[in-house]
């Protein structure tokens, strides 16, 4: 006997209710760590995230208190299904709402500025947007960290490779859409920084090159070294350079420019009482010669003749001063052959007398 319209309607409703019931009891895939019993025992409040997608939505259930970092759960939904696709739990989330009372999304001020609990962007350049969901403050110096989910035609897939980039560096990675690269940065204290660039291979990030800038030497100058990916292995590219950057704490004792090249010659120390250094700096602020670099290297200053000299290999460098210690020229002697270098008029600051006093005070 054919079903009546009422019977068909009841059957469809029963199927829908059964589907919803099954969805309700299916365990939600969860990521991140939190003290669940403590969270369930505290007062909580649920907020909607501001619209970030026509297909997906998200909520933030978070402890209802005034702490900066609070336990909470971010749930991501397909708009056509009341059951969450997945959730990310954390003991340290932040609550930042817009004037409408919705939690902000897609705020990313790198490397140390504000970063919202959810970023919706195409990370792997396949034309499908991906999700980064905050899972706490696990990146450098208690900075925000994220679980990353790669968008697919059927939803999202958790990416361990992208998640690692959002955990081990300073905040979320940077997406360079024009270069089709992903970039990360991390640091150790004030003076050592790592910058890495990744290409996308089969939808996942692969390190292409890494630059390390180290300012831990006693000169205080930045030393840059680079590694590149060769057949899946990161190897040094053999290029190292020292960079000159302005520093208010650095004390310049004598500085001048050579003519006609314009190269800067600077004798300086990083702080009073510290080692005196010589640096030859080109137009790109790259230091072509830094002295001393070995414990056995020493300056020689003939105060009566007003000549400062030092030796590197088979080359002797001499800075010549007048009776008052103002620089008047420079000689470079290579295997007995002397080349006289002129000083650019009006470019000189400081004196050999200041260098002499600093050398006396140096360790």
Question: Which keywords apply here?
Answer:
16-stranded antiparallel sheet, five-stranded mixed sheet, 2 domains, 25 strands
Description:
It is a single chain. By secondary structure, the protein is mainly beta. The chain has two domains: 22-243, no CATH class; 251-361. Helix content is 12%, strand content 48%. It has helices at residues 5-25, 36-41, 160-165, 352-361; strands at 30-33, 44-48, 56-63, 70-78, 84-93, 118-121, 130-139, 143-152, 155-158, 174-176, 181-188, 192-201, 204-214, 222-230, 233-243, 251-259, 264-269, 277-281, 286-291, 300-302, 307-312, 315-321, 327-334, 337-343, 349-350. The protein has a 16-stranded antiparallel beta sheet that branches. Strands 1-5-4-3-2 form a five-stranded mixed beta sheet, with no helix packed on it. Strands 6-7-8-9 form a four-stranded antiparallel beta sheet. Strand 2 and strand 3 form a beta hairpin. The protein is elongated, with a radius of gyration of 31 Å. The protein starts with a helix and ends with a helix. Residues 9-24 have low confidence and may be disordered.
SS element count, helices: 4
Distance between the termini: 105 Å
Q: Quick one: biggest sheet?
A: 16 strands, antiparallel
Spans of at least 5 consecutive residues whose pLDDT stays below 50 are 9-24
**Structural class based on helices, strands and sheet pairing:** mainly beta
Query: How many domains, in number, for the residues?
Result: 2
Which sequence of SSEs, written as H and E, runs from N to C? HEHEEEEEEEEHEEEEEEEEEEEEEEEEH
Provide a concise account of the structure shown.
12% of the residues lie in helices and 48% in strands. The chain is mainly β.
